Amino acid sequence: DGGITQSPKYLFRKEGQNVTLSCEQNLNHDAMYWYRQDPGQGLRLIYYSQIVNDFQKGDIAEGYSVSREKKESFPLTVTSAQKNPTAFYLCASIGEESGSYEQYFGPGTRLTVT
Amino acid sequence: KNEVEQSPQNLTAQEGEFITINCSYSVGISALHWLQQHPGGGIVSLFMLSSGKKKHGRLIATINIQEKHSSLHITASHPRDSAVYICAVRYTGNQFYFGTGTSLTVIP
Q: What pLDDT, on the 0 to 100 scale, is given for residue B2?
């Protein structure tokens, strides 16, 4: 089955440590996204990539970094510079299905930093 | 300003009721998506609209481009419809902007 996988589902880290969240897709989609979800707020865009070896900052990129070395993979690193890293992180991709663009989301990673 | 507003924020309904969730946006868009988020956090795309109306089972989505407004309707609601429903709009390019969601609880 095609889809997006994120791992791990839950992640715990100590303050000051960098942590990398995995996102893999087998949908052959060019565009991939990282969002952050906090209680009471809509999803906010961290980074997105429209093609391999290219990515753009979203609205809240500070304290995060990404890479896109392969079409299938778009890992997100939460650095120690991110002031409030505890959140639910969602990876998504967009592709054309039956003549229209559809969004596909991974199951998410809940990161807790103490 | 790229604002997406949903109403209501929270909604409780009896099983079988007809439900409407609204989404308004501030500037012209190229597409609008309705998403469903389950308690575990996973998000599923329900509809993508650029005009008119779409129907899938008991779900109906409409969009009025002139009024910058979309509605998601659920007919004959069921407890398994309990979830957070999120509206997302796409302007030019490939960026999406999301509403804060409507939390729906359907009581048996």
A: 61
